[in-house]
Amino acid sequence: MLPVTEAGSLNQSSQDCEAPFADGRLPLMIVYISVLIIGLPANLLTVFLTWLQVRRKNVLGVYLWSLSLCDLTYLCTLPLWTDYIYRGHLWQWSSAACKLTGYIFFTNMYVSIFLLCCISLDRYMAVAYCLEARGMRRQRYAVLTTVTIVVMVAVVHTAVFTIR
Taking every annotated instance into account, which residue ranges of this chain make up the domain G-protein coupled receptors family 1 profile (predicted)? Predict the structure, then answer.
């Protein structure tokens, strides 16, 4: 616990600065459970529908399908996060499960950010340079870009999560 001091003063107050985890536990658990209940079927449907677009050689479909898989993977970790919150921010599972859950969380976050950038760039190219972009917007390039993003982020996070 850190002591709270007044601005411009060296005097310490008797108040302690600590995060009130107990106060936010129930609302956060409700949010996680609601996201899981709504997100799981919605993402399963999205994975199916975007896969149909991928099969039709839709470039945007590759990015959206990958983003849906990313979200689905994250949703699978929500029961562990909910249990963690329920137990007062105490992890009951193994250290490996903790690292894997954190790895999935951070990897998905960065992969999702990069995929959203790819979607934005693809839409920009399709709208602003529709004729010129026809030759550049190929499904093969979208798959290669997506695989490169996933591998690069996974390798970097593997290094981070294996540091002792």
Answer: 42-164
